[in-house]
Design a protein that fits this description.
It contains 17 helices and four strands. The strands form two sheets. It has a two-stranded antiparallel sheet with strand order 1-2. It has a two-stranded antiparallel ribbon with strand order 3-4. The model has no long low-confidence stretch (mean pLDDT about 85). The chain folds into three domains: about 80 residues, no CATH class; about 90 residues, no CATH class; about 100 residues, no CATH class. It has about 290 residues and is mainly α. It is about 55% helix and about 5% strand. Bound molecules: zinc ion. The site of zinc ion has 7 residues, from loops.
């Protein structure tokens, strides 16, 4: 983990979390419903990896994990949420029972647990006499019923998840993943022409999650609020972007080089003006680099 903390960017880390770490989770998570303690541990490892460890403890973080687990269009990083992903994967066993009746597991369940044709997976209830595993499958059946509203609708949902006789877990995950409102600035901040690190910091700034001095004081990490740039006024996100005379000057110079009209020194107003003017990648990159 140490080498990756030093060499990978904030854009590369979420990808590695989604592919490598979740690859491991996918292997186990597709077979068992992970106990909450394990999911929590995996989430902690992901957080430590993304934010980095300093002197044995995680760096100060002001953004909640759930928000990072939303798609970019909702202002997140598209990281897969462990519990939701695991649950989505586990619904495959209900699908398998209904769509692969010939496989050995389905035949065994139908014969010995659902008692032949008399049993119905949608009616099955959990019980202490059942195995832990089968009770988990029933939990997932209940989840599908809750998501869709009834057995017929749940079946229709599973049909939609079937692609070339395979189960597509992404549709179920889409229904249960963490959600947030769509943000208007996603196309600008995640513009392909922007540096990934700038996009990440821009995203934090727009959520007001940068560790500015006012936030560090509220957590008791710092005592005196003095802007790091002008050394005069109190530092907070409004001051930094761009009420501070230093940062306003920097943005003024960058805006002039990019032939952008100056005069807007508020972060959200500037974003809005850039979006309205349909500026190109160079403008977006220049603005994010300034942040
Ligand atoms: Zn200042």
């Amino acid at each position: 983990m140490h080498w990756a903390n030093k060499t990978l960017s904030y854009a590369g880390k979420p990808q590695l979390i989604n592919s490598a770490i979740f690859g491991l989770n996918n292997f186990w998570g597709a077979s068992v419903l992970l106990p909450k303690g394990i999911s929590k541990k995996i989430r902690k490892l992901c957080k430590d990896f993304l934010w980095g460890i300093e002197d044995g403890s995680r760096r100060h973080v002001f953004m909640c994990w759930q928000l990072l687990c939303t798609p970019k269009v909702e202002g997140g990083m598209g990281i897969k949420e462990v519990l939701s992903w695991n649950s989505a994967q586990m619904t495959k066993w209900v699908w398998k029972l209904l769509f692969k009746p010939g496989c050995l597991w389905s035949r065994w369940v139908t014969q010995y647990i659902l008692k032949g044709g008399g049993g119905d997976i949608w009616e099955a209830q959990s019980s202490i006499s059942h195995s832990w595993y089968w009770n988990n499958v029933i939990k997932m059946k209940d989840l599908l019923l809750e998501l869709s509203g009834g057995p017929e609708q749940a079946l229709a949902l599973l049909v939609r998840c079937t692609s070339r006789l395979r189960f597509d877990v992404s549709l179920i995950y889409e229904l249960i993943r963490p959600r947030s409102s769509v943000v208007p600035w996603a196309s600008l901040v995640y513009d392909k022409g922007c540096h990934p690190k700038h996009s990440f910091i821009g995203m934090l700034a727009l959520h007001d999650k940068l560790p500015s001095i006012d936030k560090l004081i509220s957590r008791g990490i710092m005592l005196v609020n003095r802007c790091s740039l002008c050394l005069r006024q109190c530092e907070n996100i409004t001051h930094l972007f761009f009420n501070c005379e230093f940062s306003a000057q920097v943005w003024g110079i960058v805006a002039a080089r990019l032939h952008l009209q100056g005069g807007t020194f508020d972060l959200h107003d500037t974003i809005y003006a850039l979006l309205m003017a349909r500026r190109n990648s160079l403008h977006n990159a220049g603005f994010l680099a300034t942040i």
